[in-house]
Amino acid sequence: MTEVTTALGLTTEQVERVLTSASLAPSVHNTQPWRFKIAPDRIELHPDTSRALSATDPETRELRLSCGAALYNLRLALQSTGVRPLVTMLPGKDAPGALAVVRRGGTIKIDDEGRRLLGAVPHRRTNRRPFLDAPVDPRQRHVLVRAAELERSWLHVVTTPEDRAQLQQLVHRAHEIQLADRAVQAELAAYTGHRPGTGDGVPPASTGVRPAMQDEWAFRDFQGSERHLGKDCESDPLVVVLCSHYDSPLGDLQAGQAMQRVLLTATVHGLSASFLSQPIEVPRVREDLRRALGGVLVPQTVLRIGYSTPVPPTPRRPVSELLMDSGEHVLR
Ligand SMILES: Cc1cc2nc3c(=O)[nH]c(=O)nc-3n(C[C@H](O)[C@H](O)[C@H](O)COP(=O)(O)O)c2cc1C
């Protein structure tokens, strides 16, 4: 097993802490598809392609979004140690196979917002429970939109009844396509339910309510989710589509960081969030969603945001399992 070493002038304990923060990021089916290579002058973030979901996420777009979220946490955690993170995304030959390389770009004192966002890292959770029937305050919407912009992405807020109906229809269409796809369902089953000793996946306590086709929004149907969404679910959640400006691996990584900043900002403001990713995962539905948004922005994830009751954390693998040997290369 590879051990944590020093990097960027930090102690091994500090390196372990920043990697723990990174590992608390959300990931599709809680696959945690990231690995880290540590050297004295850098921390490299690599995709763990053995954890890719070839049916659900055939273009590994969501894998990169998940890694982007881990990168955002890593940046915040480094700032709290006084390290200004200098990030090179998709470094190419400089670090073969890496999605990003983080070096020391001098020193920094983390600001109040950064401290609050970092404080939210262990408390942020995907909350699939029904939300309260209380609208999200327009000022809070504004800070969420700003959070995405600060990470070079765009948060489209679904406001009109027509947009809402159109998005609901796209979510349902993609949901039905995925329900009929055995490979997609097999990946879902493989990562849900009791998975003792694995440190990944979505445990029964986190699966939320079971969707039914007549529901307004079709949630992912996790194995083991028992209750029916029914009338207990909020009638009008805030629904947003996080978009990137580029349809490329770089756009995916930027969107992943923006997604995490939006989710942490929501947590700071007492808001819960869950995902409605089906229309992103089915390429022909994603194309329709892209057209519905005007054809320029690239939809990357759909979030439902509102007020709810707390949910338990999902498991994480220990940092020691996330480390690569310094000589090891992962080719994408
Ligand atoms: C890119 C991405 C897509 C996701 N899509 C869905 C989804 O469609 N439905 C859902 O219930 N959860 C979705 N999730 C949430 C993950 O299942 C969740 O992050 C993971 O189980 C870890 O739990 P946590 O977020 O509470 O830490 C998604 C997460 C990511 C990062």
Summarize the structure in words.
This protein is an alpha+beta fold and 332 residues long. 35% of the residues lie in helices and 15% in strands. It has helices spanning 12-23, 61-80, 112-120, 138-150, 161-179, 182-190, 249-268, 278-281, 283-292; strands at 34-39, 42-47, 83-89, 100-107, 154-157, 238-244, 272-275, 298-306. A four-stranded antiparallel β-sheet has the order 1-2-4-3, covered by helices on one side. A four-stranded antiparallel β-sheet has the order 5-6-8-7, sandwiched between helices. The chain is globular and about 55 Å long. The model has no long low-confidence stretch (mean pLDDT 93). Bound molecules: flavin mononucleotide. Flavin mononucleotide binds at residues 26-30, 62, 65-66, 69, 125-126, 128, 202, 220, 274-277, 301, 314. Residues 26-30, 62, 65-66, 69, 125-126, 128, 202, 220, 274-277, 301, 314 line the site of flavin mononucleotide (FMN).
